[in-house]
């Protein structure tokens, strides 16, 4: 695969996300109020960046010809289930533990629906990737791959707590994957491109990814990992995302980042 296809995916992702956000702001579906939330600083912020990120990522995938339906399934499914939680969810239950506890009480939250939806999305994306592979990795590898896609989608969402944080993490995680001369390189480049196109408004505190965009970014990175690895690599990736998810239930990522030199400065870079 030539570098040109990855560069095209990167550029199309960035331009697509920026243009989509401008268009959505002019004519927000359902009105501006439906997409307005209050951020950590108590200021109004729009969630339209999420759908714009999805549009940019899909544009990057199409322009770079990522190959197969797997990446597009991941982006579309994660974006759709993220949007459900953004627009119809409430804050009565938070985190994986909160949603599972609600299920045990007989309450089906939008977060629980999203968890199930991300699991299904991950499985379909991994199956689509493996169906195109010359060396079929087998059912177990596909199941693990589906869990990686879903888990990565959740981890990216856990980082979307401060302006620019999830987008910076997406871009940095995508770089080594984008170096691959395989379809994984195009998938990662599209994810990074959409992140770069969304970054200025996010850092300025005027827009945020929400579940729609963050879940999509993570799902695309997870799909790129699945495209690039077999069972062993997928098991390692699953262990990492599972460890981060479990840790998030007990440890504040924000506190860890703000107390760690290097990470603290990188997290604040460009933020007003």
Can you give a write-up of this model?
With 272 residues, the protein is mainly α. The protein has twelve helices and two strands. Strands 1-2 form a two-stranded antiparallel sheet. It starts with a helix and ends with a helix. The relative contact order is 0.17.
Break the fold down into its secondary structure elements and pairings.
Elements: H1 3-26, E1 36-38, E2 44-46, H2 49-64, H3 70-88, H4 95-104, H5 110-132, H6 139-158, H7 165-178, H8 183-203, H9 210-228, H10 231-248, H11 253-258, H12 263-268
Antiparallel strand pairs: 1-2
Helix pairs in contact: 1-2, 1-8, 2-3, 2-8, 2-9, 3-5, 3-9, 5-6, 5-9, 6-9, 6-10, 7-8, 7-9, 8-9
Count, helices? 12
What is the end-to-end distance? Answer: 39 Å
Percent of residues in helices:
over 70%
Instruction: Report the biggest beta sheet as strand number plus sense, adding barrel if it closes.
Output: 2 strands, antiparallel
Instruction: List segments where confidence is low: pLDDT < 50 over at least 5 consecutive residues.
Output: none
Question: Would you list the SSEs in sequence order as H and E?
Answer: HEEHHHHHHHHHHH
Query: Class by helix and strand content?
Result: mainly alpha
Strand order of the largest sheet: 1-2
Overall pLDDT score:
91
- Indicate the overall shape: globular
Key words describing this protein structure:
two-stranded antiparallel sheet; 2 strands; 272 residues; globular; mainly alpha
Give a concise summary.
The chain has twelve helices and two strands, in the order αββααααααααααα.
